[in-house]
Write a structure and sequence with these properties.
The protein has two helices and eleven strands, in the order αββββββαβββββ. With 203 residues, it is an alpha+beta fold. The protein has two domains: 33 residues; 152 residues, Immunoglobulin-like. The strands form three sheets. Strands 1, 3, 5, 7, 8 and 10 form a six-stranded antiparallel sheet that branches. The termini are far apart.
């Protein structure tokens, strides 16, 4: 009888091993599963149109039309005035140094920039046949990618083109704006100034 009991115990043990092995084998065939979900992060950059003037003045200093001359030509892009006797340099050193209003696009869109004066040449300079002109050039290469007024043109009290597409990249967004005056010998002695307005429109 003891022998028979031992056989049964052995049989039960072997059966348990088979069952465990079967469960392990079955488990290895159960497919593994995974889950995934997608979210979203978004934002919108709006256009910001803005211009600024890092240098906002051209100062021709103090002087007079050289005696015997009919007029003088003052050119902020030149250090050699014609017919002008300088008695004090301007704040940026003109006529020893060139002098510009510096205009920068500090927004994040291209800008169409116009220019106008508050006074006509007669109101500003006075005398017989006065004149005022303006022009511009890149302060940083590639700043104006549109129509740039690079030759001197009449500065009037109406908006006229300065640059039709001024870029906004930090390395190419700045212009030098220069001015030229014709000062007649009969212009009245006085301190004279003219306000220049720059207006930007989004391109």
């Amino acid at each position: 009888m003891a022998k028979s009991k031992t056989n049964w115990n052995t049989l039960i043990a072997l059966l348990a091993i088979v069952v465990i092995a079967a469960i392990g084998l079955l488990t290895s065939f159960v497919p593994k599963t995974s889950g995934a979900a997608e979210g979203l992060v978004n934002f919108t950059i709006s256009g910001a149109l803005s211009i600024t003037l890092p240098n906002s003045i051209v100062d021709f200093g103090t002087g007079y039309v050289t005696l015997g001359d009919t007029y003088a030509i003052l050119d902020s892009n030149s250090t050699s005035p014609t017919g002008w006797t300088s008695t004090a340099n301007g704040v940026d050193g003109w006529p020893s140094n060139t002098d510009y209003i510096v205009l920068e696009n500090n927004g994040n869109v291209n800008a169409n920039v116009t220019i106008k004066a508050n006074k006509t040449a007669s109101e500003f300079v006075g005398g017989t046949n006065p004149a005022q002109w303006y022009a511009a050039m890149d302060n940083e290469a590639g700043s104006c990618t549109g129509d740039l007024q690079s030759d001197y043109a009449d500065l009037t009290t109406s908006e006229t083109n300065l640059c039709s597409s001024l870029g906004y990249a930090d390395s190419a967004d700045t212009l030098n704006v220069m001015f030229k005056l014709q000062v007649p010998s009969d212009a009245s002695p006085a301190a004279k100034s003219n306000t220049i307005t720059f207006t930007a429109y989004q391109v």
